[in-house]
Write a structure and sequence with these properties.
single chain, alpha+beta, Dna Topoisomerase Vi A Subunit, Chain: A, domain 2, 3 domains, 4-stranded parallel β-sheet, 11 helices, 15 strands
Length: 350
């Protein structure tokens, strides 16, 4: 057995702790619902199986969907859309990082030589955030979340955004939410089939960015929000070839669902911290600004590439779209029917 696999299984009770980390205490029940699909019946369980080599591990079994069966390594690969045949080491590194196991050597170090060499890569430092409310936004909020409704799943699906991606990035469907302003006055919002409400949950649930795609005022904020606001940063892999800085949260979700690394700031007109670019440079070979192809997006992406070029590996990509309200961003690009391979070809020509 691979030494890293053996160490992870040994430190996670045969993979049991990995399942608990990603699904919570609900998976400790004898039977439970699959939190990553629309499951109305408790049809899942974890069971222990001893392998032919004498080592045991836990397996996930969803009796309601035959595609959901496997050990903890399969589970993490499916959850984060990592191909276990070509990128198994990435699965191991993801588990190692997320559960803080410390069993995987840094890149560039054979496991038996690490103690004798100095690191040859930039160590990863976590982003440093401060938390405070947006000006004039409600400080307190009380959300009531619900399972994604069929129409809501259909909305995200047209961009290629999967339910797994929504769960990974802490995107919630809200049935109802009440807010308390600084003067203690309150107001409420409720979702309907025609006007759904989604929440980008931030700061461990202490902050939220409300997204109402069918409303005139699509965004609002509540609670204590992270500054700098960098959506998708915590979900990035430790290392990669390219990372995209894109226009908004939906674009991050679209790119992630198609297999590309991405983050966004609070808006395309937000200031790009140099500390963020420096951090990304230590982890990715290329940083590409992929803003909307309207005038604002093109102006802002050009500005920041000019700001950082020569110092960092930055460039920009302008999509071959009309630049209208209905056709201007990467989500619109995929909604038109373009594939991941077509986008990759577009990038390679860039």
């Amino acid at each position: 057995m691979n030494e890293n696999v053996e160490n992870i299984l040994r430190m996670t009770n045969g993979g049991y702790d990995v399942f608990v980390h990603y699904m919570g205490e609900t998976c400790q029940k004898k039977m439970f619902k699959n939190p990553y699909r629309e499951d109305t019946v408790a049809s899942c369980n974890l069971y222990f199986h001893r392998d032919p080599d004498g080592n045991g591990r836990y397996y996930f079994h969803d009796f309601g969907d035959s595609e959901w069966r496997g050990d903890c390594f399969w589970f993490v690969g499916k959850l984060f859309n990592i191909n276990s045949n070509t990128s198994f080491m990435e699965i191991l590194r993801t588990i190692d990082k997320d559960l803080s196991l410390g069993v995987i050597p840094e890149k560039g170090f054979p496991s038996n030589e690490r103690n004798n060499q100095k690191p040859i890569i930039t160590p990863i430092k976590p982003m440093r955030y401060t938390y405070y409310p947006e000006p004039s936004s409600p400080l307190r909020f009380s959300p009531r979340y619900q399972n994604f409704m069929p129409k809501e799943i259909e909305y995200w699906k047209k961009y290629g955004i999967t339910l797994l991606t929504l769960v990974k990035y802490q995107v919630k469907s809200l049935r109802y939410c009440s807010f308390t302003k600084s003067d203690d006055s309150t107001f409420n919002i409720s979702s309907t089939v025609q006007n759904p409400i989604f929440g980008y949950v931030l700061n461990h649930g202490n902050g939220i960015k409300i997204y109402r795609p069918m409303s005139k005022n699509r965004f609002m904020y509540a609670g204590y929000l992270p500054q700098p606001y960098v959506f998708g940063f915590d979900e990035l892999p430790r290392y990669g070839e390219v990372v995209y800085i894109t226009g908004g949260e939906k674009d991050v979700l679209t790119l992630a669902s198609h297999g590309f690394n991405a983050i966004c700031l609070n808006s395309e007109t937000a200031s790009v911290p140099e500390d963020l670019i420096n951090e990304l440079t230590g982890r990715f070979h290329h940083i590409v600004f992929l803003y909307d192809c309207d005038e604002t997006g093109k102006k802002e992406s050009e500005k920041w590439v000019n700001e950082f070029k020569g110092l960092y590996p930055v460039s920009r990509l302008v999509l071959p779209l009309a630049g209208t309200k209905q056709e201007k961003d990467i989500s619109d690009y995929f909604a038109q029917g373009h594939t991941s391979a077509e986008f990759q070809e577009l990038v390679s020509l860039h």
